Amino acid sequence: MDIKSLLNHALKSDLVKQGTQKLSQGSSSLSSLSKSCNSNDKSINKNILGAFGAGAVGGGLLGVLMGSKKTKKMGKKATGIGGAAALGALAYKVYNDYQSKQGQTPNVEQAQFDENDANHSVLILRSMIAASKADGHIDEEEMAKIEQAVENMGADYQLTKLVSEELHKPLAPSEIAQLAISPQQASEIYLASLIVADEQNFMDKSYLKELAKQLNLADEVIYQLEQQISD
């Protein structure tokens, strides 16, 4: 199973719900999910995400990160997006359309979305984890639960280190914004963050506002991205 497939599954509401239940039950089934991943893959990015497995990324990890209240909202939003490649392509289209309306000539290389680039999946996952932490509901107990689930999957050192660092580091929208190497990727980061954020939560809204500022996104781009996942 490739990275695109993993995050396609991650954006399915049924896996989010199932994953939340699995983690609350001790993640006994997550280990078996990891066996379906390609253990011979030498790519760093694929090693990081490959060990998660579809249910782990979509349900186990993100389900617990968001909490039960957010999970239902995320499920509805994610179903509308359809998958990781669709999310990235949609974000790129929103920005490219905005640029065209402004009469600007796009950078051809930046404007093209490559769905086979594994970096998109890493960017999306990191953006979602950060946005999920914005309301502060992830305490030490929740962190331990997530880390135990990752361990149960037989994750390698790189994956364990990545998850632990992302969970324990201070929330910093500026750091997430620095992942973007183009305005199109900035849109991708913001859209991924919108999916897991609760628009009714003050802390989530504050995080999104600061993230948009750090990403240097125009108000019109923000509005159009929000429209893509509006109920």
What are its keywords?
231 residues; mainly alpha; disordered N terminus
Give a quick precis of the structure.
The chain is mainly alpha-helical. The protein has helices at 3-10, 13-24, 30-34, 44-50, 54-81, 84-101, 108-111, 119-132, 140-152, 157-168, 173-177, 183-196, 202-215, 219-228. It holds the Pfam family DUF533.
Rg, Cα atoms, Å:
17 Å
Largest sheet: none
The dominant shape is globular
Strand content: under 5%
N-to-C series of helices and strands: HHHHHHHHHHHHHH
Give the % helix: over 70%
Q: What structural class results from the helix and strand content?
A: mainly alpha
Spans of at least 5 consecutive residues with low confidence:
1-6, 13-59
Overview of the structural elements:
It contains 14 helices and no strands. The chain has one domain (3-228). The two termini are 31 Å apart. It is mainly α and 231 residues long.
Summarize the helices and strands and which ones pair or pack.
Blueprint: H1 3-10, H2 13-24, H3 30-34, H4 44-50, H5 54-81, H6 84-101, H7 108-111, H8 119-132, H9 140-152, H10 157-168, H11 173-177, H12 183-196, H13 202-215, H14 219-228
Helix pairs in contact: 1-5, 2-5, 5-8, 5-9, 6-12, 6-14, 8-12, 9-10, 12-13, 12-14
